[in-house]
Amino acid sequence: MSSNHMRRWKIAGVTALTVIMLSISLYVIRETQQDARDSLPGDSDVTFVGREQCIDCHNSAYEKWLGSDHDEAMAAASEQTVLGDFNDALFEHGGIISRFYRKGDRYFVYTEGPGGEMAEFEVRYTFGVEPLQQYLIPFPGGRLQALPIAWDAEELRWFFLYPDTVITPDDWLHWTRNGQNWNGMCAECHSTNLRKGYDPETKIFNTTWSEVDVSCEACHGAGSRHVAWAEIEPMGRPVVADYGLIVRSSGIDNRQQVDMCAACHSRRSEVGDYDHGQINMMETLQPSLLREDLYHADGQILEESYVWGSFVQSKMYQNGVRCSDCHDVHSLQLHKPGNELCLQCHQADTYDAYKHHFHQRIYEGQPSDGALCVKCHMPEQPFMVIDYRADHSLRVPRPDLTQQIGVPNACGQSGCHNNETVQWSVDAFTDWYGKARKPHFGTILAAARANKPGAVNGLIALIESSLYPAIVRATALNALQGYPGEQVANIMRRALNDDEALLRHTAVEGLVAGGPQELVNLLAPLLFDPVRLVRLQAAVRLSAVAREYFEPYQLEAFDSALAEYIKAMRAMLDFAATGMNLGNFYARQGDVEKAEHYYRTALEVDDRFHPAKMNLATLLSQQGRNSETEQLLREVLEAYPEQHAASYSLSLLLVSLNRIDEALIYLARASEGMPERSRVHYNYGLLLAQMGKVAEAETALGKALGIEPQNIDYMYALIDFYVRRGRIDAALELAEQMIATYPDNPLGHNIKASIERR
Predict the structure, then answer these.
(1) Does 26 have pLDDT greater than 50?
(2) DSSP-assigned letter for residue 211
(3) For residue 604, what pLDDT is reported?
(4) What distance in Å separates the CA atoms of residue 65 and residue 217, rounded to the nearest whole number?
(5) pTM of this prediction?
(6) CA-CA distance, 317 to 68, in Å (whole number)?
(7) Per the CB 3.0–4.6 Å rule, which of 144, 230, 447, 473 could disulfide with 452?
């Protein structure tokens, strides 16, 4: 055999041996991996382990996190954590002088307590660190209450969080009451693995956490499976998703990451304890839409929105930008200073140039921040007096919208041109960029807020365009509820199948159906929706429907969702609104006893929560309990005279009791206070006509018809008014209008014929 052949045989032999050896090794490794995989805890067994378990492997991340706002979100009061002056410092607000002092290593405040009595309270925890620090005080029933006197960490002074307000001890917002309760209002986002633990029967909190601050597992979820995986020798570690972590944080898109952060960084309400690893934030959280009390009509922040509601409006979000593109996820600091941060994506010669922003870097010999991107695109405004928050909608300044709909603009917000007129800003923009301006959804939402009839088409256009952010479309859908009609009903029905859960949820709430079977046909499919809040909302809307309208397979999902809803609501009965929601739920089901119970439960939490009083008044009125109804409505008006709906309800009650003179007083107030409510003017006009106040009656009925010119009841009432007063020509003209509007309705024709026979 030649040397070449011999060499080939040797090589083949070595190769074969290697293959065999490798095969054995791979087999052993696979077996080891399987054993390791079997040793990892399952989903139900995963526990929180604490950051100490993370430090050895993730020391760099730990060092960045240490001292961050997350790290210092909450801490036990100590020499190291308390920033405020507790050296017998005095602070006065609203005539109350509070004193801050120490006893050894403990911290105290002497201030106004429950019932207005001055008393001593121990500070148990610090809350936050900069630009301000609050202090938490233990109360009976497991409660921690947040003191409204906070420490300014920059100016080194005490200040009151509501400087222009004197908050009385009976007010929900008083620091001893539920508006300042840490357990329900704040805790979930300031500690790790927070479980509120509220018992609605005893009204006691058993609130627990695994770590007092926002630590590793607050974002990554319970870590025991990951730790078990990491403790296996590297060669023997099984291939498991996300290294055994509950929350996937790598290889995710911007929506998934933003939803993770939105668990805390959003204005939302809770529907149960937060579930780590949930795919959609709406599994346990209901985000707020662009409500009038939270946002300007164009989506700019009005009240604290905690970023999410702003950011998801932005073109940045629509184009894949995520929180971590700007913020380090552990230190929370910006990656780069000033415009350098924006220039990670935007070209400097285009956007960081005078030809773009028209602002000098040096103005009158001094450095100017007018050329900073954030000054125009992320204007700040203060919350909690001194905490300046940037608007994350990253919008283009629009002084023209300030002129049109009264929203702010960056020119007058950023402390640069506050003394200039809006017209000055408009002229500057026109000079720089020309006259052309893109349409903005703000003009449509502003029209809807003003209840302008012409807003309908604009709202529909917003809803049906995928170019607009989901939060804008859902807000438009919610506003559309104020415009009844078949076209609107069809839009609501179509939105039930929208790709966005936020729209499906909103559509369920606003849906109008022709009867119980149609309601079931439309909503029963949503009992199987992949998003929990949509399922629960569908079940709540269907809760008043008799079971005979459901298919057997639908009932199981229906009952499951209802049980889940009731459980979630009962866990949150420390909020008055939750008690009212359960009251409404049982009222729809016809369970009067339970409805009354939960309305009163809401009022036990906050005895001035007028929506619950109004709903309870309605419930009692339906039972003929008139004296109790009247008392409740008068209590609402005593506390909130501007609640004109209470004046209207009281007027109708007084009419039913034949106390006409009193009824007229309250109906007049309602008519003046709710000029957009056609039904109020209608009833006011009828009552005035009954009392012989002819001119005033005609005015009121005319207002009602002016608001709803196609309302056949209003037409009929005004025609009758004219006929009774011998104004036949006016009556005939309105009858012709009725016929033209409703040609197939015999009423108009009969009225016309009757008038002509006179």
Answers:
(1) no
(2) B
(3) 93
(4) 12
(5) 0.86
(6) 25
(7) 447
